[in-house]
Q: What sequence folds into this?
């Protein structure tokens, strides 16, 4: 068996394509495989599918293929432009690569596997290609897979924003709670963001009117966007976000009081934690403070009581929250009164949790995948790259890659 026959079988080539020769350059660590078609071969028109088109002329092309051990391997061929009776002159497709890609399908499959496991820059170094070429491949497969993906069953959505880089740009993520997958990622965090999601949902076979539950933070643009674009959705305000608002009030009280109360210096992180999570040293510090007299300690107890809302039986929740609101608004602690009023303005959505039981932090694994996407897209030049990586890692997409 000649080496060309072996290579032909390894590449899975079928007529009219054959391997005509291979050149192995040990010094350059490079294997070049020449592929050609027999004179008089007929080709399929890429536009209309007519199968009997003759070659009109050819263009020589090269594709990076899977390494041959440590050597880079390339396929080379003259690709015909075919003359179709219906369509005119069209460049034929080859079975081993996508049109206009400089990589074979198998090499692209390898790339997609590698970039799921390491930063794109590192993957680029590993295969010896510039990362912009890898990003082009990533964008292609993610876009194709997204185009095929269905949102037909989506009814419960968690909406959360994440800083894209150093707090500058934001992307908003829409998560299908029931399948724990990112449905949509987009720049911005305003009402139009929700509108864009509703349009994307409809474009993927989903129905904005069928969305019955959403979980968001207390962002006014989100509230407005949901009312306008997801009209049947009941809003649950994310409980971690609600607790954070009350927690921030504790921090403000502490900052104000610390100016005249030196005992509070260095205690900031004690008040931000839950008692069960304090270190031994923090616990000892807390025990040594005259908590009965400190405003900060009073604010802290109000915060702990707010958290305990979520441990109440559903039937008791509304009354519990009323009592808490009374306590907080009579605390004579301005930041806490302000936080309580914020809770009051979002009353139904806070209590909605007792029916929906949905929260953004509960979307198991998604947030860690987003962090991983940021790490893998490190050095990304655009939020477009970050979004593609989010879809790749957290979108549960079927990439349809050759095995
Ligand atoms: Zn045609």
A:
């Amino acid at each position: 068996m000649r080496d060309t026959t072996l290579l032909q079988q390894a590449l899975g080539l079928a007529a009219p394509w054959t391997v005509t020769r291979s050149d192995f350059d040990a010094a350059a660590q490079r294997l070049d495989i020449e592929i050609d078609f027999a004179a008089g071969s007929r080709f399929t028109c890429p536009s209309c599918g007519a199968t009997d088109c003759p070659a009109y002329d050819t263009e020589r092309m090269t594709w990076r293929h899977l390494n041959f051990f440590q050597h880079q391997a390339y396929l080379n061929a003259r690709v015909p432009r075919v003359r179709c009776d219906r369509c005119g002159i069209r460049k034929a497709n080859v079975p081993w690569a996508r049109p206009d890609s400089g990589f074979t399908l198998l090499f692209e499959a390898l790339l997609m596997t590698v970039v799921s496991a390491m930063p794109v820059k590192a993957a680029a170094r590993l295969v010896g290609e510039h990362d912009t070429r890898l990003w082009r491949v990533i964008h292609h497969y993610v876009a194709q897979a997204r185009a095929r993906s269905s949102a037909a069953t989506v009814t419960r959505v968690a909406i959360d924003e994440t800083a894209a880089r150093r707090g500058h740009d934001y992307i908003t993520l829409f998560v299908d709670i029931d399948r724990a997958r990112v449905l949509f990622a987009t720049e911005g965090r305003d009402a139009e963001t929700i509108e864009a999601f509703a349009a994307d949902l409809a474009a993927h076979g989903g129905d904005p009117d069928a969305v019955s539950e959403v979980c968001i933070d207390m962002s006014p643009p989100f509230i407005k966007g949901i009312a306008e674009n997801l009209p049947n959705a009941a809003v649950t305000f994310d409980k971690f976000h609600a607790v954070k608002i009350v927690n921030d009030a504790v921090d403000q009280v502490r900052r104000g009081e610390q100016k005249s109360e030196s005992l509070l210096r260095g205690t900031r992180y004690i008040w931000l934690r839950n008692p069960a999570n304090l270190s031994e040293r923090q616990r000892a510090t807390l025990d040594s403070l005259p908590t009965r007299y400190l405003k900060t300690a009073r604010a802290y107890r109000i915060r702990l009581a707010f958290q305990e809302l979520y441990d109440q039986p559903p039937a008791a929740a509304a009354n519990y929250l009323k009592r808490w609101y009374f306590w907080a608004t009579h605390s004579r602690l301005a930041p806490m009164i302000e936080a309580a009023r914020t809770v009051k303005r979002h009353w139904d959505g806070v209590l909605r949790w007792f029916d929906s039981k949905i929260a953004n932090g509960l979307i198991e694994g998604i947030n860690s995948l987003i962090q991983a996407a940021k790490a893998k897209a490190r050095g990304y030049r655009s939020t477009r790259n970050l979004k593609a990586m989010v879809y790749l890692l957290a979108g549960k997409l079927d990439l349809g890659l050759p095995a």
